[in-house]
Amino acid sequence: MILTKETLAQIIRSNAGDFAVYRIEGGKAGVVHYSANIPAFSGLTSEEYERLLQPDSLAGVVKDDLPFVAAQIGKTAADGSDTDFTFRIYHAQRGFSWVHAKVRRLCAAEQGAAFIIVNYQNTSEETDTFANLLDESLRIIYVIDAKNCELYYANKSALDFWHLSKLSEGPCYACLHKMKSRCSWCFQNEMKGDRLHKDASYNAAMDRYLQIDAQRVRWYGRESIAIFATDVTESYKAKLSMENKNSEMTRVINSIPAGICIFRMIAGVITCVDVNPYCCQLVGRKREELVGEQFENISTRAHPDDRAAMARTFTTELAAKRSTAGTFRFFNPAQGRYIWLQLEAALAAQPDGEDYCYM
Q1: Which residues are CB-neighbours of 32 under 8 A, at least 6 positions away?
Q2: Predicted confidence (pLDDT) at residue 116 exceeds the cutoff of 80
Q3: CA–CA separation, 278 and 274 (whole Å)
Q4: DSSP for 241-291?
Q5: 109-122 burial: b if 16+ Cβ within 10 Å, else e
Q6: Residue 180: pLDDT band by 50, 70, 90 thresholds?
Q7: Per-residue confidence (pLDDT) for residue 225, from 0 to 100
């Protein structure tokens, strides 16, 4: 069967949607006709679209999807079986868009050529509403292929984070980090199930810490991973700084041959953050029993007759004078009796604005 001009004209009149007719020969596709809206799928004018198709009718297909698209079209041309699939095409403004294609053979090979019709649906337009909602999220959201890390989607926060104006084809390590191989910090191999959570994953390329929530999804029929990330660099570094400061503080006070207890004062609440072994011995309690306990509770172990004076000394007087001292009876459970303790305290302001009390 030969596709005549009359037959083609009848096909054009009977198809109200967006479609194209291709001549398949020698594994290559040549455009016979396309409807008026097809260039807009790629964000192009008709003239720009014509120039794009001149070297190859499939030149508008994203490179990574091209073998799959060519195989699907070739199968329909060869055996006449209908097929439908979703793939990516280049887009002038977005980088690429997703389209859904339904392929049907019009006539079998005649002198080595076959003709097919492809009805297109711009699925990116359908999902724009959801994309616009995701663009309002402050979280970094992107989707990658579960096998080869091909980047399929990124919301505005993700594009802004990686300083991109639009999506480009390729794996995430190339598109986002300009790297030639998978990132050494890639968490994909850690996903043993369908979901993964990481409190802080260090992104060496950006020198940022990201909180990661990832889950397996099907994205336009492809096995993919959706990543929801939050930049937690400042809070995580503050936590590390506090841990390092506390570690150094512990080393220093443990070397002092006297009972040392350190309190942190925030909004009037005084909490023990560290204590050395000699202090534990004096009060007859373990370190883990003291660290984290509020001064208000610790002071209840003072002799009933001394509690009011002790509370006044180490709250009101300490806040006013920045340093104070006093002698009080304190119950030692290891000895089963009250012992006299000479307590001296001084406040030291920290760079973060908090006050530490060294007693």
Answers
A1: 3, 8, 20, 21, 22, 23, 115
A2: no
A3: 12
A4: HHHHHHHHHHHHHHTSSS--EEEEEETTEEEEEEE-HHHHHHHT--HHHHT
A5: eeeebbbbbbbbbb
A6: confident
A7: 92
Nearest Cα to Cα of residue 155 among 127, 195, 188, 177: 127
Residue type, 110: E
Place of tokens 């809070």: 235
Torsion angles phi and psi, residue 102, rounded to 5 = -115, 120
Within 8 A by CB and 6+ apart from 109, the residues are 77
Total length of the chain: 359
Structure tokens at 30: 């040549």
**pLDDT on residue 193:** 85
User: What is the pTM (predicted TM-score) of this model?
Assistant: 0.57
Instruction: Give yes or no for residue 320 having a pLDDT over 80.
Output: no
For 23, the 3-state DSSP assignment is: strand
